[in-house]
Amino acid sequence: MDPAEAIDGIYRAEFGRALATVARLVGDIGLAEDAVQEAFADALRTWPDRGVPSSPGAWITTAARNRALDRLRRESARGGKEQDAVLLTAPSEEVVVSPVADDQLRMIFTCCHPALSPESQVALTLRLVCGLRTAEIARAFLQPEHTVAQRLTRAKAKIRSAGIPLRVPPAPLLPERMPAVLACVYLVFTEGYFATSGPTAIREELCDEAIRLGKLLCALLPDDPEARALLALMLLNDSRRSQRRGADGELVPIEDQDRTGWNHAQIQAGLRCLVSAAADGTGPYLAQARIAAAHATAPTWDRTDWRAVVSGYDELSQYTRSPAVLVNRAIAVGFLRGFDEGLAALDDIADHPRLATSHLVAATRADLLRRAGRHAESVEHYRIARDRAANEQVRRFLSRRLAEVENALRRNPINP
């Protein structure tokens, strides 16, 4: 593989891990972020000639650590940096007594400090822990990129000005940090499950990382039912991963997937988590896990329990009025009560400002119109959706659907 292409994949997989490790070593998030960025710049300069190292993640982390220490040495040499000088002479691997043993999970709890707004906590974690770029975070939030960029800048400034420590809160304070932490982990998963931009719609490394963090959270706080519900949700949805792309690498919608190829061991693990979570509480992740379970246990697409799916979305809408949730509910309503009712439900949310630049509404409307046999109208909205889609694989899928509907129109122009 071309080193430049390899670096992009390594950036996505290793940025968060490298930053979390370097931040723990030098005690400064901003310094660590700059150092990791410089390490990747070094990789871009040197790997095309020398080749990709056998352990690129370790190479990046080491290079970033050296960059950070070089900067601290320069700063301390200018005087007035006694603390940095002390840091340079201290052992680099300080023993940390903490119930959180994972660097990235520790970083998530740090970013979710209550001095930061919930929106900033999530955005900062997605940037610093998971390595999502500002544009990707903006699409995950359905917000303009400049808004998210300003939020990230303010959050980092707040950490510096307020002296927010890079440490794990004591165990009694962990539960109050959990809602933001769970939100972060879930957004990591959703970005991996359906990437907002880039060459591929599925980012397996993010799905794996989110599930790994979900398992760590369940082990950390075994009495938290929402942590188990989130893990159930991720396991159930991820169980379809191998069938979501065909042999040609293109997306395969759930109704056309080979259900015998789903990961049934993962489905059973997800269902066990779901039962356990449902016995101890309620919450938004439990509602979503119930929806995922209805899909995962349906023997065929036609035998999907749409009543359970709509009920799950109704329950979920009690916790959040997210426009994405309401769009998905409109789809489920279409399958339960008829596509015209689905379109009516979509009309109720279509003008939401957070959906203004997204392809989501146009793609959903096009699909419901196609299923209702209103092909001429469907073509119009498929074109809009295709032109708005930021992910290349999603754009190809929409183009394929558009071609199918145009062919149907040519075969039967009298009944569009």
Automatic annotation (TrEMBL):
Transmembrane segments: none annotated. It holds the Pfam family DUF6596. Residues 107-159 form the RNA polymerase sigma factor 70 region 4 type domain. It comes from the Bacteria. Keywords: DNA-binding, Sigma factor, Transcription, Transcription regulation. Residues 177-277 form the DUF6596 domain. InterPro entries: DUF6596, RNA_pol_sigma-70_dom, RNA_pol_sigma70_r2, RNA_pol_sigma70_r4_t2. Residues 14-76 form the RNA polymerase sigma-70 region domain. Belongs to the sigma-70 factor family. ECF subfamily. This is Sigma-70 family RNA polymerase sigma factor. It comes from Nocardia iowensis.
